Amino acid sequence: MNNNFKKQIFDKIHSQEITMYSKLHFLLRLGGLIVLAIVDFSLLAFVLSFVFFSIHESGQQFLLGFGNRGLFTFLELFPWGTIIFTIILLFILEGLVRYFKFGYRLPLIRIFVYALIITVGFSFLVTFTPLHSTLLRKEELGELPVIGGMYEAIHDSHQAQGVIRDTVVSISNQNNSFVVSHNDKDKDTDDGTWIVTPPPGFDLSTISIGAKVYIAGKITGNTIEAYGIRSF
After folding, report:
1. Model-level pTM?
2. Which letter does DSSP use for residue 177 in this model?
3. DSSP 146
4. What is the mean pLDDT of the chain?
């Protein structure tokens, strides 16, 4: 039976139904898969850590403490496009892992979950490095081609969503209000001065002149009826 099986294999090889490859071919293929997996994982960790960094740097995480309105605004401003790209990269990584021998022993969902946990953990650690802050400074100096737009978008105006990031220039305890001003010298729509009415119970002593604040509220002309305020 064993001889018959061998004969069948050789017959298929001679008839080109089965193609033979050298050991070098498999080593090169394995090496290529390893390189692709490393590149994909690195790109995945970079993109996901950038999401963490951008949310923190822009102040959008403050919205989570502003009640339901803040939560809905946070979801509106969340970088969903970047997350979709991250998920695509994650599926590519999962597909590459399945080519390795140990990958066949694990269910697909388990491979995906393991890859997700490792990636999120590594990406979170990357946010504690100076990588993204360094790249942001390069973008501000005009020295970051290709991906500079990603970092430039971190400080985009979100006035349409009722969110501003400005500097306190005066405080009126008598009128229970304060004035903020923004001027990044680009003469766009986010430059200006606004009178801010804080939400009920807000303690004006928690802010000071010169402080940078993150404000969410209803913007009408040059006034803001805030429902959330946090100092950077």
Report:
1. 0.77
2. E
3. S
4. 83
